[in-house]
Amino acid sequence: MQLGIGMPSHISHVPGPSTVQWARRAEQRGFAGLATIDRLVYESLDSIVALSAAAGATSEIGLITNVLLAPLYPAALLAKQLATIADVSGDRLIVGLGVGNRTDDYAAVGVDFRRRGRVLDETVGLLGEAWRAAPVTGDKALCPRPVRIPVLFGGRSEATMRRVVTMGNGWSAGALRDYDNQASFADRARAAWQEAGRSGQPLVHASVNFAFGDEDTVRLGREHLQRYYGFRPDYAALNVADMLTTPEDAAATVRAYRDLGFDGLVFHSCVTGVDQVDRLADAVL
């Protein structure tokens, strides 16, 4: 199982230069991937730009959107941006896609929140064409050459299952350590994959939130989760309670997901200090 670390780009008022520092340190310490979380109406950094900066600051570590809210973006523009990251980074990109639950994100870009699932399906169709360097309008392609970008879908709905099996390469589970339900959905995805006649197995990734350090650091991490998910107080409380606070918790989480047969696990930091990279590496690598 490959272990990744999320950059702090989604944390409110994060210092911009920390993104590059974080990326370089994560690669030095041997993490398999760097991930971003997507959100628009929040005092955070743009996830695609942050991932681009990370791509330029590194040479080998994987790059992951976990997850990107695809319906917020014009499909052709998104296709070109992601293809560019994949191309310039040497095909290090894995794209996790989802729809999110924030109505203000959709209002800000003028996309109908109620149609977000349909828009995602339409977007994914265009992404596939664009990444094959096929013309998507007229006789010109968006990309200079084909790129291979694995696509994972976030969520637990039946629509998510359909997308995983018919349109993607796998599933990206949420950040709560609900092991029984995570394992159940993963098993269903594997079974549906086989029933659809697809070769191999779907990729199955998970994520978890963490903040390691003294009491103030842990408090700041929990306050971040409370703010970030404040639009859903019950869900925010679950994330606060589930946040990892010790190296022992992190190591146990790795063992649990490895035993469930997951292919990847991303640790999302809830504080911005680059020391979190070293603290996590010491715990799980």
UniProtKB/TrEMBL annotation:
GO terms for MF: alkanesulfonate monooxygenase activity
Xref: InterPro entries: Luciferase-like_dom, Luciferase-like_sf, SsuD_RutA_monooxygenase
GO BP of this protein: alkanesulfonate catabolic process
Keyword annotations from UniProtKB, A to Z: Flavoprotein, FMN, Monooxygenase, Oxidoreductase
Entry-linked Gene3D superfamilies: Luciferase-like domain
Occurrences of domain Luciferase-like (ranges): 17-229
Name of the protein: Oxidoreductase
Organism of derivation: Mycobacterium scrofulaceum
